[in-house]
Amino acid sequence: MEKIPMTPAGHEALAAELKKRSAEERPRIIAAISEARAHGDLSENAEYHAAKEQQSLNEGRIAELEDKLSRAEVIDVAKMSGSKVKFGATVTIVDEDTDEEKTYQIVGDMEADIAQGKISLSSPIARALIGKEEEDSVEVAAPGGARSYEILAVKYV
């Protein structure tokens, strides 16, 4: 069984989503199904079919969350240090062509959110950065073509 690396914050977020889906969504959907059943003929009951679809999606997500949480390897980034880029690192890079600076934290797949500056460990840019140090230059094969970046800083916060 393959372990899934994640930060404590990512683990907490998944656990909170699981709790909400199990304790709030599941009973709400069951109530909606019961109410729709009371309306009579199920073969032509759109409310019933919509509620059953919601139930299916919710149960699927619950199973996925339970699986991910059972295989989680929580890595406390605050206890990490070093100059090499690895899981949990917050890396500041500069595009060598445009001089645009970006800062990303390398996190697990389930907690990646580009809007918050968190990129997946399996993303092309993270894979290119892993193992490198400050002042190293990296080439990233991106969908829009190859890009070159220089690593300005590596922190573990």
Overview of the structural elements:
This protein has about 160 residues and is of the alpha/beta class. It folds into 2 domains: about 5-75, Orthogonal Bundle (Helix Hairpins), CATH 1.10.287; about 80-155, Chitinase A, domain 3. Helices cover about 40% and strands about 25% of the residues. It is built from 3 helices and 7 strands, in the order βααββββαββ. It has helices at about 10-35, 45-70, 125-130; strands spanning about 5, 70-75, 90-95, 100-105, 120, 135-140, 145-155. A 5-stranded mixed β-sheet has the order 5-4-3-7-6. The protein has a two-stranded parallel ribbon with strand order 1-2. Strand 6 (about 135-140) and strand 7 form a beta hairpin. It is elongated, with a radius of gyration of 22 Å. The model has no long low-confidence stretch (mean pLDDT about 90).
Uncertain stretches of 5 or more adjacent residues: none
Structural class: alpha/beta
Tally of alpha and pi helices: 3
Proportion of helical residues: 25-40%
- Strand order in the largest sheet: 5-4-3-7-6
Biggest sheet overview: 5 strands, mixed
The N- to C-terminal Cα distance equals 29 Å
Q: Can you tell me the overall shape?
A: elongated
The fraction of residues assigned to DSSP E strands is: 15-25%
What is the H-and-E element order? EHHEEEEHEE
* CATH homology superfamily of the largest domain: Transcription elongation factor, GreA/GreB, C-terminal domain
Report the radius of gyration as a whole number of Å.
Answer: 22 Å
Domains, number: 2
Q: Which architecture of the largest domain does the CATH hierarchy give at level 2? A: Roll
CATH topology of the largest domain, what is it called?
Chitinase A, domain 3
Average pLDDT rating? 91
